[in-house]
Amino acid sequence: MADEAFQQDGEVAQRIAAVIPFYQYKGIPRFYDITGFLQRPDVFQQVIDVFAARYRGKIDSIGGFDARGFVLGPPIALALKVPFFMLRKPGKMPNSISSAAYQVEYGKRGGMCIPRGHPLDASDPLNKSTVVKANDRVLLVDDLVATGGTLSSGIELVRNLGATVVECACVVELKMFVDPPAESGLPSRKKTWEEKGIADVPVWGLVSEDILTMAGEVPEGYVDDGEEH
């Protein structure tokens, strides 16, 4: 696949953006809804094809974040014939390893966890193996990155297991949070990641907010309750 396919806001990205609406949700003026392209098999397939082409031969496993990373990660992993693992909120998986709490654009979360995996053989009777192995090259996948709080939690967890995060990939990257001016009052992903010592991990997003212009229609009487669901 040509390099143009990987260009943010390029021709492929514009086809994807055309079917991603936004809504007001949880007090956020623009909540981008990837279920728009999930309803279009041709566009969904194109998303998977682009991701698979970008990472073919470069990774050993893929981690997807709860919940939309579970939608994107498995088909990419199948296309690349590599294992997939889930990153979930603590308390959602038995026999898991947890990270520290992290901050997102609409509140604080209690960290992430990944499964330890299953015993590989009789030499591992206590099930000490993890789905992420030391020296693995790992791709972390989510639908959207804003402040990068969720991603940072996953990066730290994977690194603590001795693996390397090759890149964090998402369909939508909100550039307004990358390195905003101080007077904006917005959190800076660049500054936060520098403080955490993970600024060397690249983030790749196919679509930015610059081309996401489709306001979704909501039913009459719809109320954004501002609650976390």
UniProtKB/TrEMBL annotation:
Keywords: Cytoplasm, Glycosyltransferase, Purine salvage, Transferase. It is an enzyme of class 2 (transferase). It is found in: Cytoplasm. One of its GO terms (molecular function) is adenine phosphoribosyltransferase activity. Pfam families: Pribosyltran. Pathway: Purine metabolism; AMP biosynthesis via salvage pathway; AMP from adenine: step 1/1. Homodimer. One of its GO terms (cellular component) is cytoplasm. The lineage of its organism: Eukaryota, Haptista, Haptophyta, Prymnesiophyceae, Prymnesiales. The keyword Glycosyltransferase applies. It catalyses: AMP + diphosphate = 5-phospho-alpha-D-ribose 1-diphosphate + adenine. Its EC number is 2.4.2.7. Residues 45-173 form the Phosphoribosyltransferase domain. One of its GO terms (biological process) is purine ribonucleoside salvage. This is adenine phosphoribosyltransferase. Belongs to the purine/pyrimidine phosphoribosyltransferase family.
